[in-house]
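Hi support team,

I've been running sequence recovery on a batch of backbones for a student project. Most finish fine, but this one hangs at about 90% for roughly twenty minutes before it completes. I'm not sure whether the input is malformed or the queue is just slow. I've pasted the structure tokens below so you can try to reproduce it. Let me know if you need the job ID as well.

Thanks,
M.K.
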């Protein structure tokens, strides 16, 4: 792995770090100040390389530009979403957030080729996550070309049923960029291989 970008220090987002550390000792972790401090103290028994990055300050990993932006995920004071830019394509990953995003953020994340949105429940409202309706509303508001839901709870119907109604992501789903075009899902496999051979680096996020 070239690097891991961490949006916030909740267990479902960082709990895998110690397990992954067994596989790869050198981990380049990119995250915000506060999240970096929490990870350092939680995992003080490991030698982690934590590189802090500020909001709105683009940085690059294997040729992909990443920009963190602040989202609303109470009670955390600091939680990030991520914009990925590669070959004129733009992917927005909300991380965990409510629908209360600032106007500055809405402007920054506008017009993505793909929005990957937190949608924890089909209908119920939560103060720290979006539900499916709110994720659809955000997609419309920022004029996203494609939308994928992540972070769904078990309160959705089974995948085979819910995926007919909602743009659900799933474990192992691959997203690639080829010639500036974002490719999602099954059809991505061949593109990833072709692209990987050509560029010698895998463009999968
Ligand atoms: Zn969270
Ligand atoms: Zn979470």
């Amino acid at each position: 792995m070239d690097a891991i970008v961490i949006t916030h220090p909740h267990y479902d987002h960082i709990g895998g770090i110690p397990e992954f550390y067994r596989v790869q000792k050198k981990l380049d972790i990119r995250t915000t100040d506060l999240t970096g401090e929490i990870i350092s103290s939680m995992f003080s028994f490991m030698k982690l390389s934590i590189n802090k990055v500020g909001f709105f300050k683009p940085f690059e990993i294997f040729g992909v530009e990443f920009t963190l932006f602040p989202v609303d995920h109470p009670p955390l004071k600091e939680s990030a979403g991520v914009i990925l830019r590669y070959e004129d394509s733009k992917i927005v990953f909300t991380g965990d957030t409510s629908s209360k995003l600032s106007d500055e953020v809405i402007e920054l994340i506008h017009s993505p080729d793909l929005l990957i949105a937190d949608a924890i429940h089909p209908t119920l409202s939560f103060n720290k996550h979006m539900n499916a309706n709110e994720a659809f509303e955000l997609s419309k508001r920022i004029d996203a070309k494609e939308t994928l839901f992540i972070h769904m709870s078990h309160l959705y119907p089974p995948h085979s049923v819910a995926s007919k109604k909602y743009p659900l992501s799933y474990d192992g789903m691959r997203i690639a960029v080829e010639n500036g075009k974002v490719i999602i899902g099954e059809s991505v496999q061949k593109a990833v291989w072709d692209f990987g051979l050509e560029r010698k680096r895998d463009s999968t996020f």
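--
Follow-up from support: It reproduced on our side and the slowdown came from queue contention, not your input. The longest strand covers residues 64-70. No action needed from you.
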